[in-house]
Amino acid sequence: MLAMGSSPGLAVPNPATENAQAVAAAGAATAQRVGPGAGFRPPQQPSPTRPLIAVAHRGASGHAPENTLAAIDEAHRLGAEAVEVDVQLTSDDRLVLMHDTTLGRTTDVAEVFPGRAPYDVGDFTLAEIRRLDAGSSFDAAFAGERVPLLGEALDRLEAHGMNLLLEVKEPALYPGIENQIAEELARNPHWLVPNAPDQPHRIVVQSFDWESTERSKDLLPTLPHALLGRVPEERIGEFDWAHMINPNHTTIDADYVGRVHDAGLEIMPYTINDPADMGRVLDMGVDGFITDFPDRGQRAIAEYLEANPGVTRGYADERVMAPAPG
């Protein structure tokens, strides 16, 4: 597009514009894969050069109301490199951040909509959910904080230069949510371009529903995907299309971490808030962990690296991460 008042004969190629067009093309290519017939899934690259990171769980949810823009902002203020958030669908098919499948614990829905119990997320429109206060239940200082759209969270994370673990929450309740997420990411093509191997992943899509995770992988083939929960050792090899296994930290030991790495996958356990437990999983050789307190997590990682200079993480597989389309 030419600037106002310019002449077509004077148009000069703009590198920034060309780069933006290339990124947009990446988004369009992914959008075309949404639907039946997708299935090209390039191999993933677990890289021992990626830094150990403390992922801020639902944003910095130990310091701010979970799954809100305030929690993302607080994670950024505390220096977190990545956040984890949960996504669900409203009754009018809008993607919102919410962990519970009901609205009662984190919002004032019972006051705003009395008689609508059990207050399932999927029973409310976006306009209705926007009326709710998602901050006061955490602290009065956050009164008026709203439930954000996924797109708003993506924009805020991009503005902060942060990375994302995106959990698809209870996808069986929302048939087609994987398509909705793929289309949202296609509208935000920043998220389709991978970071360098020595940086955290820009985005990882994950779920406890492994069939949903595989459907998402078919729709978003160049993005890394993670299986939440402990995959039995004898089944790890079934998931060669995945990039990570992210289990509860209480269910693993060093042998399990080694089995995951031997399969060419990364591992980031959840949700660890005690510094002693952080040190324990770091000693196992994990690639990072998820915590409500990213500030504590970063201190634990710094102390671990100081005590273990030159520590490296190895993988049996030497697969190459395919570039984003475009």
Overall description:
With about 325 residues, this protein is α/β, with parallel strands linked by helices. It is built from ten helices and nine strands. Strands 1, 2, 3, 4, 5, 6, 7, 8 and 9 form a nine-stranded mixed sheet that branches. Helix 2 runs parallel beside helix 5 and helix 9 packs across helix 10 (about 295-305). It starts with 14 loop residues before the first helix and ends in a 19-residue tail after the last helix.
Secondary-structure-derived class? alpha/beta
Q: What is the molecular shape?
A: globular
The H-and-E topology, N to C, reads as HEHEEHHHEHEHEEHEHEH
Indicate the percent of residues in helices. 25-40%
Number of helices: 10
Number of strands: 9
Please outline the major beta sheet.
9 strands, mixed
The residue ranges in which pLDDT falls below 50 over 5 or more consecutive positions are 1-31, 34-38, 317-326
Rounded mean pLDDT is: 87
- End-to-end CA span: 21 Å
Range of strand content: 5-15%
Cα radius of gyration in angstroms: 20 Å
